[in-house]
Amino acid sequence: MIKLYGHEISGNCYKVSLMLSLLNLDYEWVRVDLMKGEQKSTEYLAKNPFGQVPLLVDGDTNLADAQAILIYLARKYGGEQWLPTEALLMARVMRWLSTAAGEVRQGPESARLFHLFGAGTNINIERATQKSIFILQQIDQHLTERYWLECDRPTVADVAIYPYLSLAKDGKIDIEPYTNILNWMERIKKLSGYIPMTKNE
Ligand SMILES: N[C@@H](CCC(=O)N[C@@H](CS)C(=O)NCC(=O)O)C(=O)O
């Protein structure tokens, strides 16, 4: 059975558990206690030398990084639905995975980390807030005439971007002005197999 090593507070782990659930795949949740530093234990570093969650183990396959795991799951178990193979569509979907690991991480993800764990995180909260506003405006604008980030259906792009936007309030980022994002998040919540983040607790 697939194993997901993760922690319930992590939006990156939520990306993966959400994808697994949307694909209707059974998996075992293996809790890695980030507060106790279990991700830096010798045993865990042997599985993921980066010392981070999420980590997916599927048979002999051992894969770290939420975005990489989404690609793996979509291609291996999701057919064409979640990750198109046509050159331009695939590139457009991949662009959102980069945005998740780039602008969204520097914005809402960092703001959340700061407000959950405080100044010890060395995060510049003014900068993270500014970056949050920038990327929320961009995504809201992008969604003006779209139901999904790309294609005419949900893809890994939506799964990669959704978690930290839905958690933006933890970072004291006001999402209310972004009506297109709010409507898009409601559509995601209605997908068959959708689970809230708390399912990991
Ligand atoms: N690029 C990685 C980043 C993963 C990451 O930052 N994981 C955090 C939790 S969200 C973590 O493990 N932090 C603990 C640490 O770095 O010690 C991904 O997208 O999965």
UniProtKB/TrEMBL annotation:
PROSITE patterns from the UniProt entry: GST_CTER, GST_NTER
Statement: the UniProt record of this protein carries the keyword Transport: no
Keyword annotations: Transferase
A Pfam family this chain is assigned to: GST_N_3
Alphabetized GO MF terms: transferase activity
Family, per entry: Belongs to the GST superfamily.
Protein name, as recorded: Glutathione S-transferase family protein
